[in-house]
Amino acid sequence: MWSLPGYDVEAMIGFGATGEVWRAREVATGDTVALKRLREGADPTALETLRREATLLRTLVSPHVVRLRGVIGDVLVLDHAPGGSLAALLHRRGCLDAGEVVTIGVAIASALVEAHALGLVHGDVTPANVLFTEQGMPLLADLGVARVAGEVRTGVDGTAEYVDPAVAAGGEPDAAADVWALAAVCHHLLAGTPPHDGDSPDEVLSAAVEGVRVPLAILAGTAPVELVAAIEAGLAQDPQDRPSAMQLRSLLRRAHATAPVQLAAGPAGPSASARETHVVRPLDPVHGGRRRRRLPRQAAPVVALVVLVVVTAGVGWVTGRGQLPSAAAVAAIVPVVAPSPISSPSRALPSSPAGPDWPVVLETLDDARARAFEAADPTLLEGVWSAGSPGLQADIAAARSLALAGRSAHGLRHEVRDVRVEQLTATSARLQVVDVLAAYEVR
Questions:
Q1: pTM (2 decimals)?
Q2: Are 119 and 73 found together in one domain?
Q3: How far apart are CA 192 and CA 254, in angstroms?
Q4: Which site from 40, 105, 197, 293 is most exposed, i.e. has the minimal number of CB atoms within 10 Å?
Q5: Tens digits of per-residue pLDDT, 100-110?
């Protein structure tokens, strides 16, 4: 165990290739702090990076950034974040609820707004570099690879899954790259996977450069469409098409209400702390071959949601086994509340005495939507959603992304388990639906 004057060093809570983070108690105040130092044998470049981080932390004072309390020699004294890292939380939970995603996204976007206003680029916004206070407040950490906007370096700094495609192709990190990285983190939180994957950093970066990814609307089919649209905006392939950090923050706020981040109980150990960033080598300008991404054929969890079915003017239904609205007649299925897990849904499909066979209505619309994604043809979605609805816009964007990547989604269907009518009028019906997303494949 090493020692530092004025502090009782207690335990290591994180480490990387060149550095390590220890929990300690300040003798004078009794405060718990985090001590960041280099590991033995670290090269001079690592020392320069550590000192650079200290300088940047003195400049960037924000409630959304881990605070630098002081520097003793080559040891950084930081506020302790006992809630652990977002990476550890993802490892425990797989994905987060929409409200939690907004809470995290807004906080980190706020940190980026302040950094970008000072001309700073973080350069490595990842789940490992988002920490939590005891109350679950998100904090942006690790400015080790941050730089002044416009500064040129060799190599690609950052974690491959969250590297802007423009940077992966050889461009310099800028504010737009931070926005893409944050959107990629939000994608991971909502879908349980980052936008691009691969067996190696090079494969991930190659997929990013090619723009090969499954649309978020497919991976997170029950997520609020406005939230999906906000995240997709940040993931635009062209940096000029992305919102600024401030604009992304506004989009996230408008998309869904925030919710407290539910941190799992238990102390934060080494696995719960932020990993150190690593450097991945730049890709060649031209890439040969093309990876085919195939999703595992696993069904999604059963969920319940409320949908609003709107019938176009002039089209009605009769009671009992009367005439059924067609897919073109039923103009929208719009989620109006967030989905919630259902432990043991009833398999009964009750029919309403004042409406048609609703499971068949929903299956008809779902079949039409599935055909659109099998053909990667956005025009086929017009009979599924009402004109101009957020759902239509999100699905059109998803279908176009598939078409541009030369891919299509097969078997993208929902199995309706339960339908209950909550409200019925002459032109609309409010339904509570329990369904499960069947196994599907993107190829």
A1: 0.65
A2: no
A3: 22
A4: 40
A5: 999 999 999 99
